[in-house]
């Protein structure tokens, strides 16, 4: 099936399922006002309309009822799980997903959809927790989840620091953990990642085949802290050296902070825009960005300062997001749906058999060439 035609579960459905499980496990009192639209929109980083849809669906099912001018309440017709039920029973229906960014970023919604669907088939619900770029908040959220009745955890770390001490607490409580996106060498943790190293190789090989010799790798993520980007750079270096090009410091640009649209679109030259002009002046003809989000900002900055893509500078990203497709940016397609399916498979099998051996899954990636890396017309000097 064409991946663009695949259907993922709507966000309001994901929120509704998470709320329903919390209701059934007695986490909401029938005499207290239920979560407001504002609270839900902030927690799940969705629009108020999406949050409202989730609440309205629960009201239509009779699970919530509304008091005019006060708010929504849990119907007393919905019995919570008995406090005398075993801890295992209350754990067994909720799996938590911990993310470092909004559910609308990149293609993560595909992972959420496939993960939620696979869990739902076995009677489980998915709750989603956003930590942003804060490592302390990430750690605090892990500690909070450990104190709650969840069956297992799918964890997308912001950086390589996966807070192993907190994850050990999950394992000691027989709650399986699956790390996604970041590769971990911890032998007892499950891991599902895409082949970032091969993705870096494919992109670099593609640029070399277009005639480029002066190629640079651009990242905002410290390589020492981000295994996914480190692997992509490793694939880049492999192909550069295989082509007989000796690497030098000009080929790695590590930007010291996160980039914004203001950095790219300002009519007054920003340091980011100046860096791109300097790269071109120094003979760089192609850039491999750490991901599509950075590639998109490079694309916009080049358009603002008059650098033509691909005539003046060829550009590649990583992730194959919808925006990269609309901007015709060459990218690497990662199978985010398979990440969700594999993570759910591992969790469910470990719940059935706690003695199961940890799994390390590396999913293949695919080059998607587009107009941003058009074959060079002139030979580099």
TrEMBL record:
CDD domains: PBP1_LacI_sugar_binding-like, WHTH_GntR. Keywords: DNA-binding, Transcription, Transcription regulation. Coiled coil: none annotated. SMART domains: HTH_GNTR (SM00345). GO terms for molecular function: DNA-binding transcription factor activity; transcription cis-regulatory region binding. Signal peptide: none annotated. It holds the Pfam family Peripla_BP_3. It comes from the Bacteria. Gene3D superfamilies: 3.40.50.2300, Winged helix-like DNA-binding domain superfamily/Winged helix DNA-binding domain. Residues 9-77 form the HTH gntR-type domain. This is Arabinose metabolism transcriptional repressor. It comes from Fusicatenibacter saccharivorans.
């Amino acid at each position: 099936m064409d991946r663009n035609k695949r259907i993922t579960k709507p966000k309001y459905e994901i929120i509704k399922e998470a709320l329903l499980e919390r209701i059934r496990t007695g986490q909401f009192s029938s005499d207290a006002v239920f979560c407001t639209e504002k609270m839900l929109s902030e927690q799940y980083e969705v629009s108020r309309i999406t949050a409202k849809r989730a609440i309205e669906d629960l009201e239509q099912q009779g699970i919530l009822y509304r008091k005019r001018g006060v708010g929504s309440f849990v119907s007393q017709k919905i019995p919570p799980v008995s406090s005398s039920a075993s801890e295992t029973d209350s754990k067994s229906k909720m799996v938590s997903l911990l993310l470092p960014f909004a559910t609308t970023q990149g293609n993560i919604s595909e992972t959420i959809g496939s993960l939620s669907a696979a869990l739902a088939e076995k009677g489980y619900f998915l709750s989603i927790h956003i930590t942003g770029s804060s490592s302390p908040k990430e750690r605090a959220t892990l500690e909070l989840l450990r104190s709650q009745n969840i069956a297992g955890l799918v964890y997308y770390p912001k950086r390589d620091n996966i807070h192993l001490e907190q994850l050990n607490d999950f394992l000691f409580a027989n709650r399986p953990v699956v790390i996604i996106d970041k590769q971990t060498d911890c032998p007892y943790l499950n891991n599902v990642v895409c082949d970032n190293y091969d993705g870096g190789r494919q992109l670099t090989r593609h640029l070399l085949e277009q005639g480029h010799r002066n190629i640079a790798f651009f990242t905002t993520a410290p390589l020492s802290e981000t295994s996914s980007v480190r692997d992509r750079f490793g694939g880049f270096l492999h192909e550069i050296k295989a082509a007989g090009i000796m690497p030098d410091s000009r080929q790695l640009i590590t930007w010291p902070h996160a980039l914004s649209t203001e950095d790219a679109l300002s009519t007054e030259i920003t340091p980011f825009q100046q860096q791109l002009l300097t790269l071109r002046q120094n003979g760089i003809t192609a850039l491999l960005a750490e991901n599509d989000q950075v590639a998109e900002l490079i694309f916009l900055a080049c358009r603002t300062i008059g650098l033509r893509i691909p005539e003046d500078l060829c550009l590649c990203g990583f992730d194959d997001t919808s925006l990269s497709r609309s901007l015709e940016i060459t990218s690497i397609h990662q199978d985010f749906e398979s990440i969700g399916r594999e993570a759910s498979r591992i969790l469910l099998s470990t719940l059935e058999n706690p003695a199961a051996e940890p799994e390390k899954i590396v999913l293949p990636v695919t080059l998607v060439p587009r107009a941003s890396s058009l074959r060079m017309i002139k030979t580099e000097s």
